[in-house]
Amino acid sequence: MNPPRCTTEDYIQFLLATPKVYTATEAGRVTPSRPDAPAHDAYTRLLHRLEPDPQPLWTEAEPRVRKDDGILILDDSVLDKPFARHMGLVGYHWSGRHKRVVQGIDLVTLLWTDGDALWPCDYRLVNPAEKLTKNDHFRDLIRVAKQRGFAPRYVVFDSWYSGKENLKAIRDCGWLFLTQVRCNRKVNPDRTGNRQIRECDIAAAGTVVHLEGFGLVKAFRIATTNGGTEHWITNDLSMDEDTRLALGERAWGIEEYHRGLKQYCGVDKSQVRYTRAVRNHIGCAIRAFVRLEWHRFNTGVSWFAAKVQIVRDAVRAYLDKPSLTLPKLATA
Fold first, then answer.
1. From CA 257, how far away is CA 285, in angstroms rounded?
2. DSSP-based three-state secondary structure for 45
């Protein structure tokens, strides 16, 4: 049997370099000419041959994180697939971007950050054909992170994952968490019975309350810029508002990660259909982000600037020898 003509690294570098088209056909077209150059079907076979596994991502991320420091952030993002009819993993999910249920692939990520670097360490893909929910994947990510030796300062996530089972899973790991909760979450602030948190008096510096079905937590009420309110809770009863604010700002890093993953790594641009190929494309896109982030962290060059530089070099090479020219007119 002949060895494969392209590797995972070849495909990852293609995802980093291509500005718009993320297909195996395009990968074959832009591959440098050489006797053993892979054609488009070599990239297609690669995506169908690899065993989908988040482990290669962890192998690349592990040397770059400090397991006993930083915070872990968990969140999901929907990869829009509005026209997909026969693509694996596509289902209907709530999209924070569109503020409605949309058709797409739901990606759940565990991200480590110290406030400077953003390192995705693990991920799960929600498969509508399975019975596992986003919350099941959340707890699995927490379980695996504990096995890998993480001891973060905090675990931060949004209200979608603030259910009792998830909170208890983090507490069982011996970790501290900070999460938003819905305004109708039941708490007991003064031993007079459970009430919705929006009906309770919550001090600006935080108030210790009993969360129904869990135990004591410290609650914060935050006024938002649109005139509404947000409610946050933590099992760190000594947390102050400055710490909560700093953690909330760091947690925004996962939204930046989602943006970079989609804009510069083509995670949602896959045009393959089979579930295995879809999983492998997404895994390679996340690993491509690790390379972008490594470059940004070490050089100070943004993801955008790094991507544009590749295109800029190609434009410069074309301008040196342009091919789309008109024939010269004969002169008398």
1. 12
2. helix
Q: pLDDT averaged over the chain?
A: 92
Residues 6+ apart with CB under 8 A from 29: 40
pLDDT of residue 331: 72
The number of residues in the chain equals 332
Strand 100-113, strand 91-95: pairing: antiparallel
For residue 1, pLDDT over 70 is answered with no
pLDDT tens string 40-86: 788 899 899 988 899 999 999 999 999 999 999 999 999 999 888 88
Place of tokens 């919550």: 202
Mean pLDDT of 189-194: 86
87-91, 226-230, 256-260: segment of lowest average pLDDT: 226-230
CB 232 within 8 A of CB 180: yes
- Choose among 185, 182, 187: nearest CA to 216: 187
Distance CA 204, CA 244 (A): 11
Helices within the chain (DSSP H only): 8-17, 24-30, 40-49, 55-61, 134-147, 164-172, 241-251, 253-265, 275-299, 303-320
Domain boundaries, the chain: 8-52+258-319
Residues 6+ apart with CB under 8 A from 285: 15, 261, 265, 266, 267
pLDDT on residue 332 = 59
For the CA atoms of 68, 69, 75, 78, the dihedral, rounded to the nearest 10 degrees, stands at -100
As a 3-state breakdown, the chain gives helix, strand, coil percent values, each rounded to 5, of 40, 20, 40
Count of C-beta atoms within a 10 Å radius of residue 47: 22
User: CA-to-CA distance for 186 and 251, rounded, in angstroms?
Assistant: 25
Q: Do residues 65 and 112 lie in contact, with contact meaning Cβ atoms separated by under 8 Å?
A: yes
Neighbouring residues of 247: CB distance < 8 A, sequence distance ≥ 6: 71, 154, 156, 178
The total of other beta-carbon atoms located within 10 Å of residue 214's CB is 17
Q: Band of the pLDDT at 169, cuts 50, 70, 90?
A: very high
